[in-house]
Design a protein that fits this description.
The protein is an alpha/beta fold. The protein has 2 domains: 257 residues, 3-Layer(aba) Sandwich (Aminopeptidase); 114 residues, 2-Layer Sandwich (Alpha-Beta Plaits), CATH 3.30.70.360. The chain has 9 helices and 14 strands. It has an 8-stranded mixed sheet. β3, α3 and β4 form a beta-alpha-beta unit. α3 crosses α9, α5 runs antiparallel to α7 and α8 crosses α9. It is elongated.
Length: 383
């Protein structure tokens, strides 16, 4: 039988306080103190760690067994909030535009339940409030700290406004995309704009490269695999009458299958190098495939998903082209991850929008997932 919690006034107040007080990645000092105080008030041990921000707690069950981690990310984004909420951000220029306030409060709701039901814990639970997910480096900082070396599995969530509160998506399919950053720097001979024939300016080559990159998806990649190539910044020149000597651009590639990332790198490198040669200039190309696609451990995902209909509305996974550094924990132990419905209303705004709104009711769904998934995973890794 599934476990349930009540969405109490205290949980709603906690969520709204966290929403009002977001902090940027690796600067979550007040958030860290708030979460540590909350854990201590529930009788949960707060562990010493080398992390400058973020909190690691430990709940020991009344029975021996494995150790499972429960993770929530804690950082906000450099976004000016335009949600219109009564509890909008008090920190100008910073917003929980990705709903990490929902994640933290959901995990606190689960911690409150576990703290009073230690007899149900066949092992122990490590509570991981992780910093700096938005940088893609926060989970790695936790892994590198050694604080999760003792885990047998890890459970995580992300709210998703495309689902309504009460809905959950978990399964064996890829959930969030692998992420690449690419950089192209072009080196030419600058000249007076009135005498372009005396130089080899880089701008025409750059324009040609950017247009050609779009053929990677349309002509080289299989149409049955999602793949995104986005140029997001261009630079070159700052004077109206000078053809610049330097220019460049950068962007991102998102993928779900490693072979597609490798294909995109090969084609992009060829396009950049051959186009530069055709225009008589040189080019530096850098490719940083820094985050793998997020896929739950299939054995854990199947049993966790099988329990969901007892406490939530199980939905198909709609993969996200956003990245999620939770995947770093899969280098340490098996992981299972879920999307938690947070809005689903007509005309709702997506993650990272200044008008993004996550509904309080998502806290209950998220907390119940943490509780029921943790109980199931403890039993599975024990057997």
């Amino acid at each position: 039988m599934a476990e349930h919690i009540e969405l109490t006034d205290d949980l709603v107040a906690t969520r709204r306080h966290l929403h009002e007080t977001p902090e940027l990645s690796f600067k979550e000092v007040n958030t860290t103190a708030f979460l540590a105080d909350k854990l201590r008030s529930l009788g949960v041990e707060v562990l010493d760690s080398p992390l400058e921000t973020g909190v690691i707690g430990l709940i020991r069950g009344e029975h021996d067994g494995p150790r499972v981690g429960l993770r929530a990310d804690i950082d906000g984004l450099p976004v000016i909030e335009e949600s219109g909420l009564d509890f909008a951000s008090h920190n100008q220029g910073v917003m929980h535009a990705c709903g990490h306030d929902i994640h933290m409060t959901s995990l606190l709701g689960a911690v409150e339940w576990f703290a009073s039901h230690r007899d149900r814990i066949n092992g122990s639970l490590k509570i991981v409030f992780q910093p700096a997910e938005e940088t893609g480096r926060g989970a790695k900082s936790v892994v590198d700290s050694g604080m999760v070396d003792d885990l047998d599995a890890m459970v995580g969530t992300h709210n998703n406004p495309d689902y309504t509160p009460g809905q959950l998506a978990v399964g064996i399919e890829p959930m969030m995309a692998g992420c690449v950053k690419f950089y192209v720097d072009l080196h030419a001979e600058g000249t007076h704009a009135g005498y372009p024939h005396l130089g080899t300016g880089p701008l025409e080559a750059m324009a040609s490269m950017i247009l050609s990159l779009q053929t990677i998806v349309s002509r080289n990649a299989t149409p049955f695999h999602p793949l995104v190539v986005s140029v997001t910044e261009v630079h070159g020149g700052d004077v109206w009458n000078v053809v610049p000597a330097e220019a460049g651009f950068l962007g991102t590639v998102r993928y779900f299958y490693k072979e597609d990332s490798q294909l995109a790198e090969r084609r992009m490198r060829a396009i950049v190098e051959h186009t530069a040669a055709a225009y008589g200039i040189s080019a530096d190309f850098r490719w940083d495939d820094f985050q793998d696609p997020l896929v739950s451990d299939p054995d854990l995902a199947k049993v966790v998903a099988a329990d969901v209909p007892d406490y939530a509305d199980l939905q198909p996974i709609h993969p996200s082209m956003a990245g999620e550094d939770f995947v770093e924990f899969s280098k340490v132990c098996p992981v299972v991850f879920a999307f938690v419905g947070s809005n689903g209303g007509p005309g709702h705004h997506g993650l990272h929008s200044p008008k993004f709104i996550a509904k309080d009711a998502a806290v209950k769904t998220g907390a119940e997932f943490y509780i029921n998934a943790a109980l199931r995973v403890l039993d599975e890794v024990r057997s």
